[in-house]
Fold:
Amino acid sequence: MARESLSKIERQRQLVQYLEKDPFLTDVDLSKIFKVSIQTIRLDRLELKIPELRERLKNVARSKVSQLKSMTGRELVGELVDLKVGASGVSILPVTQEMTLRKTKIVRGHHLFAQANSLAVAIIDAEAVVTGLARVSFKRPVYCGEKILAKAVIKTKKGNKYMVKVTSQVNDEIVFIGRFLVFALSEEVVPH
Amino acid sequence: MARESLSKIERQRQLVQYLEKDPFLTDVDLSKIFKVSIQTIRLDRLELKIPELRERLKNVARSKVSQLKSMTGRELVGELVDLKVGASGVSILPVTQEMTLRKTKIVRGHHLFAQANSLAVAIIDAEAVVTGLARVSFKRPVYCGEKILAKAVIKTKKGNKYMVKVTSQVNDEIVFIGRFLVFALSEEVVPH
DNA sequence: AATTAATTAGTACCAGGTACCAAGAATAGT
DNA sequence: ACTATTCTTGGTACCTGGTACTAATTAATT
Structure:
């Protein structure tokens, strides 16, 4: 809380950080944090083009909903661009900052896995599908701003078991290869 | 938009539905939709215990933020409960509804993967770590409400390569086993 | 017709702002 | 040291989207 009088630029720099990690802060909160008047905070926001609390909350509410879709969405991680049910599928996942490690800017592996896994599951022509085994290989790091194109193909089918191979690339460069053994569940595998 | 004068209960029933699919509606919006006065809408919300717009937005924003944290959080997926850097680690991930497939209530595989992978990376004593290869096996479905306990152990180390084995269980029952080959990155693998 | 329920109108008040103006304090330029 | 400029603060009027309350009006019931 305590803070010796900062320069304007330093205060504004910190203000951005504060709001990034907590967009719920009001101008009053901020004025207390930085020990300046409300007007100063408002001038800062004006200069930095940071919208007011309510606008921020609207944005958070809206954007997080869409981000959620990309990660934990009910259906697919990424956007489906092609699908031949029972055969193959293609999805695209644009890399946002939230997916990367702060230090290295490298996409965390589980995002690639999630895109591939959900695509592998999506191309199976069955009501419910789960993954049993997977062997995945991360060929090169993927960075913020890149778009990951994942292609999935069913390689073999034995009963309710499918082998799906997923290849993900960025600009024709392979970044990820995964082989997923997935199972189509029989009707009644009901939760306990 | 147009709507013949509804009974109170019917209006309130529909009001709930409207707000469920669009929490961004103001009382004014609603009063226009139902062609009643603002006061009526407010009485309705009062009776139905529906909070005002701003509260609703706060709730949406907060819940989405926390959901995001569980999946795309900067650090670990799950909560770290034990860590011996360079040796082993344990994390717990409570399963929420968002992680499950709607139909089957089974946790989507990439959440287990994410927990395990991020834990495998976390126990390595290095600034930046990436996953190169992984072999994972999903032993049994995990359901909403369960808590996944993941244990990671470094099995071997060769130069900057580590083999990490992660075992995840729910109530002493193994649900997931993964072997991760991870790399500690040399200082300067800077993004382009 | 009288009673009750539902609706509407109106007022005072609040948080968290925008937009603007003017005055004072701090800093830099010369 | 004095001035010019930038920064900061104070104050006002106004806005949205409400709460909380009172009173009047309208509709439905018995």
About this structure: Residues 8, 36-40, 43, 54 of chain B lie near DNA strand C (CB under 10 Å from a C1'). Strands of chain B lie at 79-84, 88-94, 129-138, 147-158, 161-170, 173-184. The mean pLDDT of chain B is 89. The first strand of chain B starts at residue 79 and ends at 84.
